[in-house]
Amino acid sequence: MQNTIPKRIFDFLKDLPPFTLLGKERLMDISEQVVVQYKKRGETIFRQGDEPEAYFYIVHEGAVHLLNQREGEGDVLVDECDEGDLFGIRPLLAEEPYALTAVAKEECLLYAIPTANFPQIMEENPKVALYLASTFAVEARPKALPVHKNYSLSGEIGNQEAESLVEVQSIERSKQPITCSAETSIKEAALIMSEKEVGSIIIVDGKQQPIGIVTDKDFRMKVVTGRFALEESIRQIMSSPVITARSDLSMADVQIKMIRHKINHLCLTENGEDNSAVIGVISEHDLMVMQGNNPAILIREMKRSTEVREMKRIRIRAEELLEKYLDQEVSISYITNIMSEINDALIVRAIELSMKELETKGKTKPQVDFCWMALGSEGRREQLLRTDQDSALVFSDVPSSDYEAVKAYFLDLASQVTDKLNECGFDYCPADMMASNPQWCLSLQEWKAQFSKWIHSPTPKAVLHSTIFFDFRPVFGNFSLAESLTEHIFSDLDQQSLFMTYLAKNAVGKPPPLTFFRNFVVEKSGEHKDEFDIKARAMMPLTDAARVLILHARQGKINNTFRRFEELADLDPNNKELFEQAADAYEILMRYRALQGLKNKDTGRYLKPSDLSKMERLNLRNSFKPIGELQTLIATRFQVMYVR
Amino acid sequence: MNSKLKKMIFNLFKRRETGLESLPAFWKTYHTSFEQAYDRKTPIEDIRFVCFDTETTGLDPQKDQILSLGAIAVQNWEIKVSERLEFMVHQEYQPVGQAIEVHGILPKKREESLSEREAVEHFLAFIRQSVLIGHHVGFDINMINIALSGILKKKLKLKNASVDTINLAKRLLPPTHHLSSGELSLDQLAQKYQLPMQDRHTAAGDAYMTAILFLKMLDKLEKRGNKTLSDLLRK
């Protein structure tokens, strides 16, 4: 038989994660088994508490609301699923009733996909399991991990190994396995469990080897129902043998093992078999928490780190997290938040440690407030990869008699900090735009004078500096110093509008990176000949455009380029669509650059158009579209043709 | 009733029985499925519908032949992708007419296709007593009927109830609506009901599109109080 009809299903699924991760044949098999369901507006698809169905769903057309229906609290909308979104995947991952109710918000066509083959698919392809697990985490805990839907650059980037379960060790430390002997009474075991606040207990023999496990569920099913009395031994109600695993399993492996055996607790033993001693227990709940808490753990560990080596190691783990997030197509706004929190924590820790070190050398901090400011991409909270550092330091005005000593201290501090950041993998700024440079370590008064000079005599160099310095963001110290600098800049801008024109002219200086024939503009010579410079050609024009427009709107606190565009969309409804497109475009470019950088172990700045798939080229090309329009808008608004 | 008349009726009955006896098994199986024919009061969600389409060498059922056939089942607001038929049909003679170019089906693809007889056998086994749905369904039924008569060497017709999606589309228009030309074509209806436009001109593709269109129209018809088979069969 021919397969025109399954091919249509296939064509829809092939661009959507996790199907992007599947081979063609496998996906064709799945397409053959799809049931296309029509849902009337307002129809309930499944209800909270219902037993799971044999399908999970993808919205082909229409919209579905996921509701939390708690008694007495009414319905709470947890998520809306639109075309291409996955929902109802609980039956794939847990033998539990639905946690939410799904209702067709409008008339819908759903693709119902049988779950039967998925355990095998997930086993063959751990990334599918990981993706589904993260989507599941979203369903279970609303808005925790917004999964980005529309821009799948491709599923093929990234290595094929399963991500390592970095946190297993910390779990073991924090969670000693709770055990008891087989002769313990049910009542005693229950008391131990409630005292230790655990959901499971491992029954061990004299050698601490696991012979059985009892979970909350066993109590519900076997004791509360009266089938076994409290005085009987725990042996009576335990599940045996215990499913065991080694502690170095990947997260995906654990997930799959649980699915295959239909269990919620996995017992970790020394050699992974049940003939060695118990060293820990991992529950499905632990898995969820781990997935959600990864960044929190990293930030906490960063704050507690005591040496640079440790900071570097944590930052490398953050990069693994970044890779996982990109792979799972988590939204860029979430990723940038997490990564800049981690970067900030690293900078803060570097400053704190440096101050301590100086103190041990007898150099105490003068009683003067200061503020460490991040500039450039870190200032904009967009530094996903460890590119170079840009920073500045501002300190409170001091009597001129103290100035030399105070400045010397802060320069000393700044060099210590930049050295540490360098050791952590952030290169020194080639143009020396760092707080350790005497030019960029200034008192508030000096900084105000410096910005005034740039604003009132906008030489090309001044404009270039301002593109970096205007993205400053306080990271450590007294933030009000940075705020008064912002105020000063705005009042100066009010007096000198010509500066904005120069800044605008700079922003329109780099045309959209497409030639007349819709090909990428590549570098003509040098080390990166025939490569595309994604930073200079596509990202900087957007960054520059966002900066000039947001400065013009006098919005000082928003530094992030796509947030700036989002804010502009709110402020200027006439150009809402363009600004939204620009925000989307910037997110795509950031994602692409990060993927590229991780793949090539570099800054991701240069890429070969010939290496891109058709889909990727199309995606990138689309993201160039708003550049030209933005530049026209800026050129008109700021009358750039009148300045030279 | 006098005995002569009784005998006549009996003979008539007997002749019909023998008539069925002499026909191939596939027809008998098909025929028997109508013992469970749908009552006109059957609620819509209990009915198995089969949406189908044929591509032919032309528009004259007497002269033209089936080139390909696509069919898909719809029941209880669901389309199961696995419950479908799609194949090409080859003819004993070279097909004549322009349709070949339009559909891009050339006779040389013979090895991948079924003979007309195989096609009809498969089709009957698939549809059983289901209600047939199609865009201009009368034409497609006619094509099958003629093929069927040719195969059985006997003038026999499909016994299924059928619903034309064109008729449904008309019923959903306001009574005073002035029809413009092409308004009820599958393409235009697909646009109106926001169906994804994909490669047209394959029988299976059109059958699938008709199935989705049918579900969308069914929802609207149901809201207007159409609940049973007889509501659906109304002209």
Structural class of chain A: alpha+beta
Question: What quaternary form is this?
Answer: heterodimer
Task: Give the structural class of chain B.
Answer: alpha/beta
Distance between the termini of chain A: 69 Å
Note the main sheet of chain B: 6 strands, mixed
Number of helices of chain B: 9
Strands across the major sheet of chain B, in which order? 4-3-2-1-5-6
Helix content estimate of chain A: 40-55%
Strand content of chain B: 15-25%
Provide the domain count of chain A.
4
Major β-sheet annotation of chain A? 4 strands, antiparallel
The CATH topology of chain B corresponds to Nucleotidyltransferase, domain 5
Q: How many DSSP-defined strands of chain B?
A: 6
CATH superfamily (homologous) name of chain B = Ribonuclease H-like superfamily/Ribonuclease H
CATH top level assignment of chain B:
Alpha Beta
- The SSE order of chain B reads HHEEEHEHEHEHHHH
- Count of domains of chain B: 1
Q: How confident is the prediction overall: mean pLDDT of chain B?
A: 84
Radius of gyration of chain B: 19 Å
Low-confidence stretches of chain A: 138-174
Number of strands of chain A: 20
What brief labels describe this structure?
heterodimer; A: 644 residues; alpha+beta; Jelly Rolls; CBS-domain; Beta Polymerase, domain 2; four-stranded antiparallel sheet; 48% helix; globular; B: 235 residues; alpha/beta; Nucleotidyltransferase, domain 5; six-stranded mixed sheet
